[in-house]
User: What shape does this take?
Amino acid sequence: MAKRGVKIWTVRVALTLVALLVLGMVGVWLFLRGGLAQLDGRRPAAGLSAEVTIVRDAQGIPTISGNHREDVAYATGFVHGQERFFQMDLLRRVGSGELAELFGARAIPVDKSHRLHRFRARADAALAKMTPAERRFLERYTAGVNDGLGALASRPFEYALVGAAPRPWAPADSLLVVWAMYFDLQGMLEPRELARGWIRDNTSAAQLAFLLPEATAWDAPIDADSIAAPAVPLPERAPAWWGKPPGGKPARIAAVDFVDSVGSNNWALAGSRSKHGAAIVADDMHLGIQLPNTWYRLALRFPSADGTMRRVSGVSLPGAPPLVVVGSNGKVAWGFTNSYGDYLDLVEVGTDAARPGEVQTPSGWEKPERHVETILVKGAPAEQFEVRSTTYGPLREAGGKNYAIHWIAHADQAINLNPMKFESADTLDAALSAAATVGIPAQNFVAGDDQGNIGWTIVGAMAGRAEPGIASTFPMAAGDAAAGWQTALAPSDYPVLRNPAGGQLSTANSRQLNGAGAQVIGDGGFDIGARNRQVRDQLSALGTGADVAGVYGIAMDDRAIFMTPWRERALKVLDAAALEGKPQRAEFQRLLKQSWSGRASVDSVGYRLARHFMWSLHEVLYGGANAQMASLDEKATAGSASSRWPAVVARLLDEQPAGWLPSSYRSWKDVQLAAIDAVIEDLTEDGKQLSAATWGERNTATIVHPIGNAVPFLKRWLSAPADMLPGDANMPRVAGAKFGQSQRMTVSPGREEEGVFNMPGGQSGHPLSPFFLSGHQDWVAGKATPFLPGAAKHTLVLAP
Assistant: This one.
């Protein structure tokens, strides 16, 4: 009996444990389900003037319709709050420097670097200066966000994993999200200036001019066929640091996994060249890609000034003011690319023992304001962080010097709600005029209207300089700051180009202009220009009578035009003498010849070898300098100093000057062979076969929700498939493992039903939502899916 009793109790305990496990799993399931957005039904919403409908299609893309713009703002906030709140929270924390409150001490360095700018205080000040109507607009969006969050049956799942409660949204938070984009889009300006300053301080004037050219043959400005820049004389000798390995060790390919993070393409075709007489506008913005995607697709419907219903379709940025970032309003379509102008100066400040507590700026001696910032740290005591600010911006230290960071992001014009003007722009001219008043990180603005007109300008805050030019791209001493920026550029001084003779426009982060306007923009890190040249030439090849499909197809162009000369250089040095007794070099040569498609295709080994050869040369020639620049800023490199370095190296390989041959090599051929050997060593590490080193094996997507990286065992449920991606930098189809085309759009205003669109992630940030990855495979394949939302599948009504 005793044994039987023990057995019964054992069974009961086991059943109880199973039941508890099942109940726990059900509880987790119900908790997760409780974080899903409401898609159907009717719910009350305080403050609405009339009903608002949120109609979603099969991919979860909403059309939000209301009788008042503020009501539509509220409903936009409601859907953002339900489907993207954690993403919004991260963005405001990036802008304000408050990530450590969620992620602990590891986020403190980022928080400190961002707290220097005190954007939370600036956001409060900017909000106070807004008109009552503007504040009310943000307040209605804020109310929608908080009501959407509050309507969830359980908090977003991310907060359970980080052990925090979501903090309610506030109107100032929407401004912080825009400032987060300043960090994303202009965050390389500081390390760029430091890198350029190091090179200037360690070269002669002639060497500097050669190493940092203002233009190359790759440039394709929109106002000329090319940049008329004569070749800079080649100095007799290289600087002392040239060709030195980092730390005295043999050169390795530190940049082998580099993916060019310079991003975005857009282009427009005039009605004179389109099939139907209206302009066609295409845009693909390149950003770091994770889940959920940066953008949230939607269409907004509300009455225009004449009482008719206006439809504005495109993408919004969750958390930012509830506007369409790029898209079409039925009359005008527009797109952005990062302009890479010169919007920041590093001004060295002086000190004097006789003036304790003061610093010398271009305005004279002053005592910096001191602000104590408190950084809340998860699992640890809060940290106090002092910020010292001058009239030229906050102070930072680098290389034993103190610099004031004079950044346009600090100006009153840096942020406003003027992007709303694009919603009501009925003509190209109206859109171009509005662009010069907008407060966002400065972008190339390419637009077209339903009458066939196309145009370009800069949209966003620009720096007005007393002496514009290349000199301001280096750190300046206080006495030299007259060359720096003085005030925000006046809207009347913005460069503009309307209806060029060729009937086309394109930008891709490279130098935009050959004329005087180039000096107004300045060079804040332009791309080398190969990508825009390829876009421009493809657009020209369309001729007349082009349609949306043809214009969209340019975004899929992965031809390796830029990389082809590097393949040819490698093949040239792999002659019989170089191959003798070197079977791996022979294999390298064979793969360059036989596994080369002329594209950055996933099955090409040749493309990967040619690309790595170029970057291996970068390490051989710049590796030692990069190691020294890293002491100033971890992002300061020769590549950040100038994206034109491949043109510099190409010229040296072609001319082979003895005075620039690194001392540890007998010939320029040996330099190139050493670079090839380094590629072979890297790609055959751990017994790997060189023939298995395809571009797809290297360029495999790792698109993950941030929680998937923080909690690795959840990664499989919080990731997109590990697709091999064609494309690379320096071609229209930019693609990297975590960086690339965050959206693709091609649309003709007034003919939106013919437009196409895709993006790498779905509408929802919740892995149980059917909209978490909806559309992802279309993006991988480059499928031209419709620009407008599809047929209604779900309807939610918000009622007063």
Observations:
- The first strand starts at residue 41 and ends at 44.
